[in-house]
Amino acid sequence: MTDSDKVLNILQKIADAIHENEQFLTDLDAAIGDNDHGINMDKGFQKVATDIPSLSGKDIGSILKRVGMDLVSTVGGSAGPLYGTAFMKAGAVVADKNEIDQEDFVSIMEAGIGGVQLRGKAVKGEKTMLDAMIPAFEAMKASCTAGDDTPSMLKKGVEAAENGVEYTKTIIATKGRASYLGERSIGHQDPGATSFTVILRAISESY
Amino acid sequence: MVGIVLVSHSEKLVSGVLDFCRLMAKECPIATAGGTSDGGYGTDYDKIKEAVSSVMSPEGVLIIMDLGSSVMTAEMVLDEFDSDTVMMADCPMVEGAVAATVEAEGGSDLLTVKQAAEEVREVSKF
């Protein structure tokens, strides 16, 4: 089981991981986007980190919703409404819970992906964060059903997300700023798929 | 009179469009939300929300966006208001803004102003 304090601890780890990868994510975005993904994500998660002390003792649903609102208000690029909606939808499925289990985590992921799809109107294969998120979700759901423990489930999720990032190098962007580049977007990995993988890896390393 | 909100990644872009609209629409309430709160490129949820509130009236507000996160962030702001009072127009920004502000200035209702903005998609330039 994962309690509220552990969730806050994980959020700090995510903020640290995003901060460490700020330049890397921005460089990826410079190649096929508008050169700000790392800067924007760092702005968002630094705001989350600032809010962590005030979230102590809150239920996990409220914590995730607050993270979503923080991202929407501070990120400034597409990642704001996308990750923001993901966290808000994720918060709704664990509303009032002070502890969550593996199955809850899978439900959180599913709701988060639903949020990204609702907001971005994208599907798999368009060179977006969904190309890492969907395979990661599918791998973790299968792992959870197979009875794996949390660390193994998360490891499989990270692996699938990493493969998803590799896959984004091979396809043309049809959503977002990168879509203006058409075929020139091939060969570059998607910054959003990468930031999702950074986040999932940080979660995985917390177990 | 219907209020118009112009949302863009760039403060310069949106204030330019506002000046341009003012050549024809002197009275229509127009607010802008351009760039992030720290002056960079991007969209700011609170800025958009404040802009909508600043031109709000019973006649309603039409939001006109540029691309990408402007659309998504405006969509999230939309959730905060009554869906009959605040709407987004699916149109190119400059042409749509001129059409909408002129239509609003003439006293049309929100749906008509939205339609005027969206009709510019059908107009060929040459």
* Biggest sheet architecture of chain B: 4 strands, parallel
First and last CA, distance of chain A = 11 Å
**Tally of extended strands of chain A?**
2
Cα(first) to Cα(last) distance of chain B is: 32 Å
Number of domains of chain B: 1
User: How does the helix and strand content of chain A classify structurally?
Assistant: mainly alpha
Question: How many DSSP-defined strands of chain B?
Answer: 4
| Average pLDDT taken over every residue of chain A | 97
SSE sequence of chain A, one letter per element = EHHHHHEHHHH
CATH level 1 class label of chain B: Alpha Beta
Fold-level CATH name of chain B:
Rossmann fold
Total discrete domains of chain A: 1
- Unreliable spans of chain A: none
Alpha-carbon Rg of chain B, integer: 13 Å
- Side by side, the strands of the main sheet of chain A go 1-2
Name the average pLDDT of chain B: 96
The gross shape of chain A turns out to be globular
Radius of gyration of chain A: 16 Å
Beta content of chain A comes to under 5%
Strand content of chain B: 15-25%
